[in-house]
Specification:
The structure holds two protein chains of two kinds. Chain A is mostly helical. In chain A, a hairpin with a 7-residue loop joins strand 1 and strand 2. Chain A is globular. Helices cover 42% and strands 15% of the residues of chain B. In chain B, a hairpin with a 7-residue loop joins strand 11 and strand 12. The longest helix of chain B has 23 residues. Chain B is globular and about 100 Å long. Classes of the chains: A mainly alpha, B alpha/beta. The interface between A and B is medium-sized, with 23 and 34 residues.
Chain lengths: 384, 1038
């Protein structure tokens, strides 16, 4: 059997992504049809840059979701004779099957590993960013609105975290000695509490004094929140639904910990600006609680810059995760994480560039997509 | 007393010289994603050497774009798409980029609104100034320094050497603007463009800048283009004026021509919507221009002002309207096709208030309120020295139910701090704030109970900031209701919210809208609705209209007052604009640097004796009325910082009367509060005799013989007042509405007599009761008669304490005048003081100079209709028609509904003016109005609602034509037309004017649909189908 030509490899990969293309067309088609009703997201279709970003990001999100259908081989399967083989190499013993992007050092399929690797990144990066936003937003609103001593203290803490070298912090957090002291666990205990606090404040400030609405919304928040909290932070979920691998938890907590001070600063600045508006004064004069003003009057109007930052921050986090993987931090050795694959491929880069290039390009295109998406969103939100 | 008017008119006509700037048919468009947006269309003007041309208009009318077009600086989106700009005879379009660059800043200089934005914050002022001559004239550095210094002295900056070394942020806003002016003048430009140069400044500072600009203009002979939205400012600075509306110049001429004999409905609308002296909230309320400025891409066909114009007729939307000369006035041009037809003295109906609110018990009482802030020098660690800012210093005043108390002062006077304390956003340092007897001054808003919170509410200044852009309008109001505990259920609150929308006269559909979909005026209405949601006792209105366009201001002001009157709410009206304060307030509190320097009834404040600060403030407000003479007081310097207030009297650093106080009393002691009659308080060291000798600052009236009467002083004034009051009401007291109205009362007392005599000559006037007269317009004689009663009620009603009496007075008057009218006797004989009042009104009504002179020299003729050229028969026909209408309306309408009835009448009479043949319809409409209490709108509709005989209906044919092929007819309209029995093109093509009117009414469209066009299109389609259509219109039908 012959090795596939470049063109055959290309079409082969395209064909392999068929489910993604279909889903992409459906999503974009629907979005385009209803774009008039989709506010900012709908307006994205006016911006070519934003569109490119959106397609790239959607592509990777869908790839991660449908990775099982796309992969040609199990990412951990080693097939003898396929070690460091060039892209398009036929698989011995399996007729008509090829390693589309070649085999790696351990004779695993590079293509399948790249596709599977998207899952790690896309599982952690957005979730960690959301948590970082919850923490940063809650504290940033408080500091920006109240000012004074609480502001001084919080800003000082944020600056301290920001000033600490990130990589060193990561190394510390995953070091077994540090881990055994329980520091990451306590950290997760504190950080994972913020989403609950956030939603409790959100509903309480809105429905205070309205009886049922308040109790129902608070009840749901607390039950769901504490349930997830017990599982994620302390691995003590009685039902076993929420669970996080200790390694993953470490990564997660570190990413949240490092990102939240930046979010804090952005939100604090926005709050300080928006709170001078008359509608905030109007809310004060009708006797609103400060948390209502913060979460319902100020936060919605800070959303523009925050959405943009959210997209950018997922990109940073993706790179950060890649970096961590590169250093072999926090992920299991056989994981197909992009950063780790790049690191492994790096060693043989001069001889076999096909080992490191696919995950590197994948990482690049995802981050590029997120950045372009952020650009597009910013551009369109300013146009209004 | 410096006059603002006469000296200018002499300096205008210099036609023998070449114009400095000549603009011909300028068209500027902006090219954006949505396509081409024309910003300026067909704009022409000329600026002669040494002349100041004013460019006035509302936001978005293109006035600034014109200036940028002259500078050829419109960014990459803007482009001049047509016309020529000639600078000193040379077409600027043909100049190279280099030549233009050379021209800018040297021959043409521009001054922008925000001084800080024009100065480089990182460069010392001296250096920035020196750059100008160095770059443009290549002079040496030392010479440039000398010139800069000289120029700083010319713009009257104190200590110019120090200023040269300062950075822009180290000096005050007023000084910054002076620097910008100095910079612009350094290169000795031939043309100076001033784009709202004083809008960002305080009134008294503005007065200084305006004076400076005028002086420099006279001294250097620089031509100026002065862009402003403020008509008063234009009057004070300009020789000629161009009024712009929606991208077009609509009227241009000398200031006198345009101000006194305006010939465009928009200009007239503008003047009707600003509170000139003589406007009164009860008897002579403002008239807003209905509707709003069209968006640049949605401009109507024909006249841009058409949809908002009360003189609108078919031909107004037929096509492009060029500027047309006004007969007999060389410079005066207007963009109105009906320039010859419109009766320009015809005034629109006003919603006169028959029963002004009467102030009740004291609601709010503030005793010796103090508010100090501690400002720490070092915020981070809370240490260091603390300094105390005394934002409010012993504030004492009270406000009664249904009363409007204005708090007047410039920035930093503490008025906003006072509002914050009232609302509970701050607590008082000392003293008490009593709301219905309970102290709320030391309770923050969080700790106030729901009722108290709802009782004190606020209307905010900036409409674009007052609503949260993220929530729908309805939900914001509902939230307010929730917080105030209004309504028991969500459904109930929703219903209340809709009622509130009704209250502020917005469509209920607005509940679902987001704030960004609303215009400024609409947002402000929502702000009003929100403030009044919880049945408040006190509403603090913080400059609620100052950020709105002039034409919208009036509507919002009227709305605010209507609601207040209905709800009997106390209103604290915070403002720096004394014109609106005089119009709206019952009592006035003048603040300066945290102190109340003067307070009293509105009449007391606007009449001597004044506090020197009030005096200066009054003198500083620009008034857009050529008949007003103002005393000229310009304060030196800027308002001191509240961080570092002067010792003794807060005003002593700028007080022009400081020298009249012996010794250093002003610098050492805070003056005591001097209590004058009637609750009038002045905080000043000036001796009583000096206060007594003060002259009124603003004098209404012409420089004619009338002015002699003013000189007789306050004693005469007060007698006159008592006299007129006594006659009309049988006992109006309240210390004399001196100053303004009275002076005018004296000013043309003689003319008034003749005015009183005039109505007898026309039959229409005899049928008129006073209330009607206030409203009825149309004929000159009517205007006179109206003036008679109008002024009487204005005078009396403007005194809050006697408000009750004054309404009684009006009533009495009515009763008195009615039989008089019935007997067709002379009203003048019935009430002599009315004559006097008439004259007052006559002068205040912006009569022309020429006219007023006639009035004073030949009183008998003075009140005769100005446009004598009008044929008598036409007048008679109109009069007869009107009489018939009046009678018809009078049949039912009475009391409160009267104003509405009059409205219908007005519409009827309008119809009559247009064509005699229509008289029958008009009468019908009036009759129907009298039955149904119809407003103008419904009356007009009912008049047209009879289906014309010529209208052809038919059953649905087998193959109805596709009416949608006619552009302008959509599926919806097609449905309606089908419902009316219209199915074929042929039917449509046979429509006559009456049919079209009827269809218009049936479709009840706002704005205008090109119905005439439908007929044309339908004709083509009926004749030869699509082919014929293409032949006629050059395009395919839809």
């Amino acid at each position: 059997m012959d090795r596939l030509s470049a063109f055959e490899i290309f079409t082969g990969i395209l064909a392999q992504f068929t489910p993604v293309w279909i889903a992409l067309i459906i999503i974009l088609g629907l979005s385009y049809a209803f774009r008039a009703r989709l506010s900012l997201y709908g307006k994205l279709f006016d911006s070519p840059i934003g569109m490119v970003g959106l397609v790239l990001v959607l592509f990777w999100v869908l790839t991660a979701l449908m990775a099982d259908w796309i992969v040609t081989f199990d990412p951990l399967d080693q097939i003898s004779g396929m070690k460091n083989k060039k892209p398009g190499w036929p698989v011995r013993g399996q007729d008509g099957m090829h390693y589309l992007l070649g085999g790696d050092n351990l004779a695993r399929d590079v293509f399948s590993r790249m596709v599977m690797g998207s899952r790690t990144v896309l599982a952690i990066a957005p979730a960690a960013t959301i948590f970082a936003f919850m923490v940063g937003t809650t504290l940033g609103l408080l500091a920006g609105y109240k000012g004074g001593k609480s502001d001084t203290v919080l800003t000082f803490l944020a600056n301290m975290v920001l000033a600490f070298p990130v990589i060193l912090l990561f190394f510390l957090l995953v070091t077994p000695e540090i881990r055994s002291t329980g520091v990451p666990l306590y950290l997760s205990g504190v950080l994972f509490l913020f989403p609950i606090i956030f939603f409790v404040l959100l509903f309480w400030s809105r429905y205070d004094g309205q009886g049922n609405k308040l109790y129902i919304s608070l009840g749901i928040t607390l039950v769901l929140g504490l349930w997830a909290y017990s599982g994620l932070a302390f691995n003590a979920d009685p039902l076993g639904v929420f669970y996080m691998d200790p390694n993953l938890l470490n990564i997660f907590v570190s990413v949240v910990f490092v990102n939240s001070p930046t979010v804090f600063r952005i939100v604090r600045g926005l709050t300080a600006d928006i709170q001078t508006r008359d509608y905030v004064a109007a809310a004060q004069t009708r006797g609103e609680h400060p948390w209502y003003i913060l979460l319902w009057e100020i936060l919605p109007n800070a959303r523009g810059p925050l959405i943009v930052d959210f997209c950018l921050r997922i990109g940073y986090t993706t790179i950060l995760l890649g970096t961590l993987g590169f250093f072999g931090l926090g992920v299991s050795p056989e994981s197909s994480d992009w950063g780790m694959t790049i690191n492994e491929g790096r060693k043989l880069l001069a001889l076999y560039p096909h080992l490191a290039l696919p995950p590197a390009l994948a990482l690049m295109s995802l981050v590029l997509g997120l950045n372009l998406l952020a650009d597009g969103l910013r551009e369109e939100s300013l146009k209004d | 007393m410096a006059s603002t008017t006469l000296e200018k008119s002499t300096a205008v006509k210099r036609d023998d010289m070449d114009p400095v700037l000549e603009i011909e048919g300028l068209n500027i468009s902006f090219f954006v994603r949505a396509g081409e947006i024309p910003a300026v269309m067909d704009f022409s003007c000329r600026v002669m050497p040494g002349e100041t041309m004013g460019l006035v208009g509302e936001s978005g009318c293109g006035k600034s774009t014109v200036a940028l077009g002259i500078m050829r600086d419109m960014g990459n989106r803007g482009k001049i798409v047509g016309g020529k700009i000639k600078f000193k005879g040379r077409d600027m379009g043909e100049m190279s980029e280099e030549e233009l660059r050379d021209l800018r800043g040297s021959k043409i200089a521009m001054i922008y609104q925000e001084p800080m934005a024009s100065l480089n914050p990182a460069m010392r002022i001296g250096k920035q100034l020196m750059e100008v001559p160095i770059i443009h004239e290549k002079v040496s550095e030392t010479e440039a320094y000398d010139r800069a210094l000289e120029m700083l002295e010319a713009v009257k900056l104190p200590d110019p050497k120090r200023v040269m070394e300062a950075y822009p942020h180290q000096i005050s806003g007023g000084q910054q603007q002076r620097i910008v002016i100095a910079m612009a003048l350094l290169s000795k430009p031939d043309l100076l463009l001033l784009d709202e140069p004083t809008t960002a400044l305080d009134v008294t500072v503005e007065a200084g800048i305006v004076e400076l600009v005028k002086e420099l203009g006279e001294k250097t002979g620089t031509s100026m283009l002065f862009i402003s939205h403020n008509l008063g400012l234009i009057l004070e600075t300009c020789d000629r004026i161009t009024v712009m509306y929606s991208g077009e110049a609509v009227e241009t001429g000398t200031v006198e021509e345009v101000f006194d004999r305006m010939r465009h409905p928009y200009t007239q609308g503008l003047f009707n919507s600003i509170p000139l002296p003589g406007a009164d909230k009860n008897s002579r309320p403002l008239i807003a221009i209905p509707g709003q400025l069209p968006l640049p891409m949605e401009r109507p066909k024909g006249c841009n002002f058409g949809p908002r114009c009360r003189f609108f007729q078919e031909k107004c939307d037929s096509g492009h309207i060029p500027m047309q000369h006004v007969k007999g006035e060389l410079d005066h041009r207007s963009r109105c096709v009906r320039i010859e037809e419109i009766d320009w003295n015809d005034e629109p109906e006003r919603n006169v208030v028959d029963q002004p609110a009467v102030a009740g018990d004291t609601v709010l009482e503030i005793n010796d309120l103090k508010k100090y802030y501690d400002v720490a020098a070092n915020k981070m660690f809370g240490g260091g020295d603390t300094r105390t800012v005394k934002a409010n210093e012993s504030i004492t005043f009270h406000a009664r139910e249904a009363e409007t108390v204005a708090i007047v002062g410039e920035s930093g006077c503490g008025k906003s701090t006072l509002a914050k304390v009232l609302l509970g956003l701050e607590t008082a340092t000392d003293g008490e704030v009593l709301l219905d007897g309970r102290d709320i001054g030391s309770t923050m808003v969080e700790f106030r109970d729901k009722r108290t919170v709802a009782s004190v509410q606020m209307v905010f200044q900036n409409p674009f900031d007052t609503l949260n852009p993220s929530h729908s309008v309805g939900s914001q109001i509902i939230r307010t209701l929730e917080k105030f505990g209004m309504g028991d259920s969500d459904a109930d609150r929703h219903e209340r919210m809709l009622k509130l929308l009704d209250l502020v006269k917005l469509p209920r559909a607005f509940a679902e809208r987001m704030p960004r979909q609303l215009s400024g005026g609409q947002k402000q209405r929502i702000g009003v609705a929100r403030a009044f949601a919880g049945e408040p006792r006190v509403v603090v209105a913080d400059e609620p209209v100052s950020a709105l366009d002039v034409s919208v201001q009036a509507a919002v002001t009227e709305l605010l007052m209507d609601i207040q009157r209905e709800a009997r709410t106390t209103m604290l009206f915070i403002s720096h604009d004394l014109s609106i304060v005089r119009y709206i307030a019952d009592r006035v509190v003048v603040m300066y640097l945290g102190h109340i320097v003067e307070q009293g009834t509105t009449d007391d404040i606007f009449a001597p004796p004044y506090h020197p600060y009030t005096e200066a403030l009054l003198s500083a407000i620009p008034i857009a009325d050529t008949s007003v003479t103002k005393k000229h007081i310009v304060l030196d310097g800027d308002i001191p910082s509240a961080m570092n207030p002067p010792s003794g009297c807060p005003f002593q650093t700028r007080c022009p009367r400081k020298s009249q106080v012996p010794g250093t009393l002003c610098e050492t002691d805070v003056p005591p509060v001097r209590k004058l009659a009637n609750g009038h308080e002045i905080k000043c060291h000036l001796a009583a005799d000096i206060l007594d000798q003060m002259e009124p600052v603003i004098v209404l009236g012409e420089k004619g013989s009338g002015k002699g009467d003013i000189a007789t002083g306050p004693s005469t004034d007060s007698t006159t007042a008592t006299l007129s009051g006594g006659d009309s009401s049988g006992g109006v007291t309240q210390g004399a509405a001196a100053g303004v109205s009275l002076v005018t009362g004296g000013a043309a007392a003689l003319a008034g007599l003749s005015a009183g005599a005039e109505p007898a000559t026309t039959p229409a006037a005899n049928n008129r009761s006073p209330e009607d007269t206030v409203e009825t317009k149309g004929m000159k004689t009517a205007t006179k008669a109206k003036a008679a009663t109008g002024t009487v009620s204005r005078k009396t009603a403007s005194k809050p304490a006697s408000a009750k009496k004054s309404s009684a007075a009006t009533k009495a008057k009515a009763a008195e005048a009615k039989p008089a009218a019935a007997k067709a006797t002379k009203p003048a004989a019935a009430a002599p003081p009315k004559g006097k009042a008439t004259a007052g009104e006559a002068t205040s009504k912006r009569k022309t100079t020429a006219k007023a002179k006639t009035a004073s020299t030949a009183p008998a003729k003075g009140a005769k209709p100005k446009a004598a050229s009008k044929s008598a028969s036409a007048a008679d026909a109109k009069a007869a028609n009107r009489a018939a209408l009046t009678a018809a309306v009078r049949g039912k309408a009475s009391g409160a509904t009267k104003s509405k009835a009059t409205a219908s009448k007005a519409s009827g009479s309008k119809a009559a003016t247009s064509a005699k043949a229509k008289t029958a319809t008009a009468t019908k409409s009036a009759a129907s109005a009298s039955k149904s209490k119809g407003t103008a709108k419904t009356a007009g509709k009912s008049g047209a609602s009879a289906q014309p005989a010529s209208f052809v209906k038919m059953r649905k044919p087998k193959t109805p034509d596709d009416l949608k092929m006619v552009s302008g007819i959509g599926p919806k309209i097609e449905g309606i037309l089908n419902g009316m029995g219209v199915y074929t093109f042929e039917q449509v093509s046979k429509w006559k004017k009456a049919d079209r009117d009827w269809v218009n009414a049936e479709l009840s469209f706002k704005g205008r649909i090109e119905r005439e066009d439908w007929v044309k299109q339908a004709k083509a389609l009926a004749k030869g189908g699509e082919a014929e259509y293409i032949k006629v219109f050059g395009k395919k039908p839809r």
